[in-house]
Structures are given as C-alpha cells and as structure tokens.
Amino acid sequence: MLGKHLLKKSIDRLQTLLFIEPDNLVAAYALAFCFHHDFDGIVNRQRAVELVHRVYEHDPEGDLGARALHLLAWIGRHHSLGVNQKVSADLSRMSYENIRFAFEKDAAVSDLSWNTSYGCSILAAWN
C-alpha cells in the first residue's frame, strides 16, 4: 500500500529531523499526524499525544498550537474500527482525555473537519 509506505518514509525523515532539531515544532506536529494513523506498524497514539502536547505548550496562542489541539482531539477517535464497533477501554479513555483537554483550551476545536487536509499538506512537503 503506497500510503502506508509514504507514512513510514515520512516518520523516518521526521524523526531524523527532530533528532537534529529537537525544537522544530512543525516537524513535531507532522510526526504526531503520522503516528495517529491507524495502520499496523505506524500507529503510536502515545507518542502522537506527547508530540502534540509539546507543540501546544510551545505555541499555545499561535496557529500551530491551535492546530495541535485540533489534532489532539482526533487522536484515539480516528480509527479503522467504524462507528458500530466496540473500542478498547484504553482507547476510549485516551480519546475522552484528549478531547476534554482540547476543549478546555480552545472551544473552536469543535470544527475538526479541516484537520486531515492540513496534516496531509504538511506530509506532502516532506516527501
């Protein structure tokens, strides 16, 4: 699957960039976006949450901080199980905590529809 291959390639490049430039918030956001995808061998929700919190903490009033909150609200919700499938208690708890944190910080998080297209545009720039 080409999409999965591109995500893995993006993850490798972004991790390398963050090793060299640990304060690069755009790379941290893009890596979190990669890790939130529900593919075997790619999904790493805990790391995605850590990265998103780091981005938000460094830019709470800025555009990237707002985007980080939007992504945080998706982590744990955006999965391949479908709406009628039962999810694990851990995943449900993570999703709830992420959404609650995001809403506490910014009520505009309720408009989540643009999140995916922005994340894809960042990934395209890295490949």
Q: What class do helices, strands and sheet pairing give?
A: mainly alpha
Helical segment tally? Answer: 6
Mean pLDDT across all amino acids: 75
State the oligomer: single chain
The major sheet is characterized as: none
Shape by Cα distribution: flat
Beta strands, count: 0
Helix percent reads 55-70%
Alpha-carbon distance between the two ends: 16 Å
Query: What is the gyration radius calculated from CA atoms?
Result: 14 Å
**What is the N-to-C order of secondary-structure elements (H for helix, E for strand)?**
HHHHHH
Low-confidence residue ranges: 112-127
| Strand-residue proportion | under 5%
Which terms would index this structure?
67% helix, mainly alpha, single chain, 127 residues
How does this structure look, described?
The chain is 67% helix and 0% strand. The chain is mainly alpha-helical and 127 residues long. α1 packs antiparallel against α2. The protein is flat and about 35 Å long.
Element layout with pairings:
Layout lengths: L1 H19 L4 H11 L9 H14 L4 H12 L14 H17 L9 H12 L1
Short description:
This protein is 67% helix and 0% strand. By secondary structure, the protein is mostly helical. The longest helix is centred in the first third of the chain and has 19 residues, at 2-20.
